[in-house]
Predict the structure of Oxalyl-CoA decarboxylase.
Amino acid sequence: MAEAGINDAQNSPAQEAQATTDGFHLVIDALKLNDIDTIFGLVGIPITDLARLAQAEGMRFIGFRHEQNAGNAAAVAGYMTKKPGICLTVSAPGFLNGLTALANATTNCFPMILISGSSEREIVDLQQGDYEEMDQLNAAKPYAKAAYRVLHAEDIGVGVARAIRAAVSGRPGGVYLDLPAKLLAQTIDAVKAKQSLIKVVDAAPRQIPAPDAVKRALDVIRNAKRPLILLGKGAAYAQADAQIRELVEKSGVPYLPMSMAKGLLPDTHEQSASAARSFVLAEADAVVLIGARLNWLLAHGKGKTWGAAAGPKQFVQIDIAPTEIDSNVAIEAPVIGDIGSCVEALVAGMGADFPKPSSEWLNAVAERKNTNLAKMAATLDKNPTPMNFHSALRAIRDVLKTRPDINVVNEGANTLDYARSIIDMYQPRKRFDSGTWGIMGIGMGFAIGAAVTSGTQVVAIEGDSAFGFSGMELETICRYNLPVCTIVFNNNGVYRGTDVNPNGGADVAPTVFVKGARYDKMIEAFGGVGHQATTPEELTKALLDAIASGKPTLINAVIDESAGTESGRLTNLNPQSAAMKK
Ligand code: ADP
């Protein structure tokens, strides 16, 4: 390991003047100076000593079994805290594994920094065949908000400062920081080194909206007959919870939360229109988007979903990124700034006499909501054998209702679609899911990131297929004794387990897994607690036990193998051949 750190309190001023430090120490000093206290990663050449040193210097290093999961943990930590989550990987393959998480973070607007060791620049650039040779900087660029490489130890402070600023300012995203092996070992005068570090001031400056933009937006809302507020995960990220609640309640406008904005206001709030989603999207004549993009998750703001026949809609869009505006449809009233400042300005501009939506609109929404809730209650009340998605989720819902502080991770196809609407959330930034890409594989990474960051219980509701992408991290969960309860919805396959090979050959159908697999036994191999649940009662008991103990737990929830639908609710994105449709 390298020489004494620049923070070594035992050095006299004279000794310090002569002392040297190195790249390893400077990276850690730069992160610590900026209040970063945790690194998620996976060690190997050339960053093992960086991880050791981080731990020796009082940082937390959480070691994973695959870099993608470490990167996902870092991304969710960034989303929860507004500070960039840090993922540390080795070069080439380790870097590439982490890159998927970096790209996902950028896509979701989560701030994270992927720090990867890299090989000798001279050899890489001449393609002379180094150990794990790869031009990582250029590989990262298309998938990151920014990418930097540091070649001289005296620039480490600048490199880390730029990475932090790029990750959290404006629209947050993933940043790549390339640290060649040679840089880490470079020595540098300790005094000069200390002077080179930068403590970032006001990393994500407030961005106050222009008064005329606020006025334009208020005019749209004031003149609307059927207004709707749509909250996205940008609104949750902004940590402007009180201002958003004030806007919703003062305006009296029905609101819809996107999946990760659930809990920003409790899902049981009377203005929540979640249970009348299709109705309000189709019928609203003015929609206020707050930290939500009109991407595929919102049918791009057009077509049947948006009631094309009901006439054009007016949109207000609050976003920090001006280029988001008009990305899919015309936006009448863009309000550019940070969500806290924008929402505050809207509330201030509303005045005491701002008109509430008509009772005709509010009654229509309430009526549709009540009808749909009654229908859903009837479905949820059924107790089929074997369990289906609904009866299993009812059991989980009833337990989670008693513990609104619990973090929920959710992925899968059917498991995601059903859980999103059945599991109510009551507090902001407690739900972490497949997000903007609809990605599978975030499960255990997000669960570990959420448990480490919050220090509180996580329940991961996982489809059996989705769980497979990160399942080996059960060892990580057990190693750090994290309060994570993973519930695997086991229906023997992708979507469902009933497909057959049309040729009748030895191979099973592409969507089918081993029947009756016991995922609960996997966690037992690492000292965790495994449960098998075949009824809602068994599931309730196992979940209550897991939460009470706080122990790493996996519940294998046996679901009817014929219960799932192809692609969950994304059937429209999954072209099927005429023959297979039969
Ligand atoms: P969802 O998937 O929930 O609809 P998106 O990820 O599509 O949400 O949208 C989030 C939006 O929020 C992005 O357009 C992003 O630019 C914006 N955003 C993120 N943080 C802030 C912030 N602090 N202030 C304003 N806008 C923000």
Notes: The chain has a mean pLDDT of 95. The two ends are 64 Å apart (CA to CA).
